[in-house]
Amino acid sequence: MDDIQTTSALGSGEMVPAVSADCSSTSFTPLVVLELASDTKQEAIAWLLSRIRDPQQNGGAELLVEQLGLGDGGSEKENPNLFLGGPRDGDSFLSMAECQYIIKHELDTLRAKDETHVPGHPQAKLYPGKSISESSYTLSLCQALYFGFLEYFTFALVPMALIGVPYYLFDWENYDKYVVFAVFNLVWCTVILELWKRFSTSLAYSWGTLSRKKAFEEPRPGFHGVLGFNPVTGREEPLDSNTKRQLRVYLVSLPFVLLCLYLSLYVMMIYFLMEGWALSVHDEEPTFWTGVLLFIPSIIYAVVIEIMNLVYRYAAEFLTEWEGQSTYFNFFNCFASLFYIAFAMQDMALLRQSLATLLITSQILNQFMEAFLPYWLQRRRNKKRMRKVQKRKAVAEAELPLAEQVRLEADMSTYLGTFDDYLELFLLFGYVSLFSCVYPLAAVLVVLNNITEVYSDAFKMCCVFKRPFSEPAANIGVWQVRLVSKSSNQSLQYI
User: What pTM did the predictor assign?
Assistant: First the structure.
């Protein structure tokens, strides 16, 4: 603790009066002197002394300690926070050096079990947080690996963010500026993906899941079919008629996907019409409010994209069940308008504005929908149940019986896995890798989002959703392939 400036050993064995933990007057042999900073708060001093006197089974040192105080000729500049410490049993057969070593060890290993900060010093935190390896013992390994990738992705974005800020502020409006940063993005994507493979391998090795490789992908839990032998693997598993599945895909699913594609293009055209209208209004009367109006179409379009992605998710789940697919699939629409602006319209100013608005709006919506809205709904359900419990048994929430606590947690939402969490990071990776050459501040926005994402996801998994069953994981699975494919598409785009 920073308030403890020095801990020195005493060379003499003079007996001095002291007060033990039970406040009974006794004598002990002081062997160490503890000097605290002169500006240490009394709350912190009282807390530290209580921890030194507490029994060892409670995390204390179980030592005797007493304040030395000022001498007879002491001045105001002298530090009054001097304390003598020693063992309870003065007739030890150990030598003085051994006793001092044991006392120092006990002081160094004091434990604070309930406090989150040093009393009187809120800035002195006692629990800085859990590492990724420690999180793997409480969370599922899939979740721990997700947090590992989120942490790695955030730190990997820092160099791009540091370069992007001066690059954005430097007034250089020509295509050479975009080409230079695009080449940097290409190298950056390649390097961080290769380094992530090594980092994920080290995590899997430390967790003992490195050699866990699925020889064959298991069918999804909701897949139904007649038991039979797979002609490829020779294993007994549910099978479905391939002919029926193909008919469902070509006659229903494919037309539905084309309809969704048409709807996406139609919404995008409406967005461009709204953008043109807002620009014309601003050109006729350039005021502050017409300047704000320029961002309204992008905000509306970002909200519509999130709604459409939610509809796509439910549609993908329904089609997966209806077609009888053995694996999951999903589709989304986030980059269509940006590609159209970049390659068809070639309007870099509109591209920067649209990218910034899409990033900020989608991040705010995702944080609200993923954590805060479910938590608010859960709190409402808990309050209703707590009123019933208190009326029936007149107990406080802190003294909630185990049965009622189980019922409260049973009402929590079910965590459906890390698919949506990885999808969000995948989209952010796409925004940064594909379009940050035009808008270098994109990396800064994503770094800020990831910092809040760590806390919101941890809050969501610990307080909003039920704890899922642990499942071993050796890597991030198919998302590694998708990230590599995104990097390959980026190379083709720059060419």
Answer: 0.65
